[in-house]
Known about the structure:
Elements: H1 3-28, H2 33-67, E1 74-80, E2 85-91, E3 106-122, E4 139-153, E5 157-164, E6 180-188, E7 195-202, H3 207-210, H4 223-228, E8 232-240, E9 254-261, E10 277-291, E11 294-309, E12 322-323, E13 329-330, E14 338-351, E15 354-367, E16 380-394, E17 398-408, E18 417-431, E19 433-444, H5 445-449, E20 457-468
Helix pairs in contact: 1-2
Amino acid sequence: xxxxxxxxxxxxxxxxxxxxxxxxxxxxxxxxxxxxxxxxxxxxxxxxxxxxxxxxxxxxxxxxxxxxxxxxxxxxxxxxxxxxxxxxxxxxxxxxxxxxxxxxxxxxxxxxxxxxxxxxxxxxxxxxxxxxxxxxxxxxxxxxxxxxxxxxxxxxxxxxxxxxxxxxxxxxxxxxxxxxxxxxxxxxxxxxxxxxxxxxxxxxxxxxxxxxxxxxxxxxxxxxxxxxxxxxxxxxxxxxxxxxxxxxxxxxxxxxxxxxxxxxxxxxxxxxxxxxxxxxxxxxxxxxxxxxxxxxxxxxxxxxxxxxxxxxxxxxxxxxxxxxxxxxxxxxxxxxxxxxxxxxxxxxxxxxxxxxxxxxxxxxxxxxxxxxxxxxxxxxxxxxxxxxxxxxxxxxxxxxxxxxxxxxxxxxxxxxxxxxxxxxxxxxxxxxxxxxxxxxxxxxxxxxxxxxxxxxxxxxxxxxxxxxx
Length: 469
């Protein structure tokens, strides 16, 4: 018999004896009816008090008995004693939850990333001049697979560190998937009007280039952007919003950027020479509000760039600029020293579900003779534009987009490349989960003027799945 059962039996005996000893004297007495009732009431009160004390003791014993049984779920454990298998229920130990704690004193730490996977069919990347001797084959492509972390310190510093498991075509040292740094920077933001950012990130030049990869209306950026803008560089910049405190309602009215960079690309710590790339950008938002009850804005921008580069520097970081003998394009790696000067203007107008974006870029590439060594190429001017429009057929869900782009490399007569893109975007869960499909038709002026090199019009279909986390 268990301790609990023995104790309950003792309680029953005590209660029974007390009832007998209390009720019998009451029955033998000859007192008045009221006195007998009073005695019965006192006896009942006494019994209730004793019963409450006994219940308290029973509960105490129950809790002790329960505490002797380990916490957790039971699982079946099978043992073998040499003759038979024995099954026994044993307590499964609870697992300690996994957690991550930052080593520093950040007040904010966010881990995230995104994956973009492409299907590319037809004349793959013909809009980038990838035809003829630089043609690519139909493929599935891991376009971007990035993971990064951002943080914020109470001492007015924020930072970002991000890496990518894929590279743009032509920038990877091998044909395999690589991992390399993209954004790695630290920003001091105590004064919103004058912030200091240093590390590796996109130099502030070009609206389409500075638009995040995950929010583009067209799957790929125009080749004009890729060929002329400097993309990611290592350096430092001063930037800010001058009206943040003096005119908070119009803090986005003006934003300025001014930076100094090595000028020879990302993930390269050694500068190509003792000169730097100087980049500046101004953004003006003269209007932000409602038109016809729709959220709207107008943003204008302008860029300038100057850089003195040595031989071996790639001056088309994420696009193709060098005109080959058959009119196709490839990355422009300088055979000798140069000095580049570039500028651009852009505008973005949004009216509810409608977006209209336009940008023009121009660059002058002039050779320099260094230590008696000629540059090895003729001076040239390259320019181009892109105009992009988007409209939500179903608000926030289904969007149609179109883009017209043109690049004039300026190295051979009639070497321009035009492309028109039509696309559909389905936002399953905003930009976090998005499907995109584009059809691109491309014309080559050089191929049209020189039909002996083959076709001068090209078609491509690109599909993309995007997941952000």
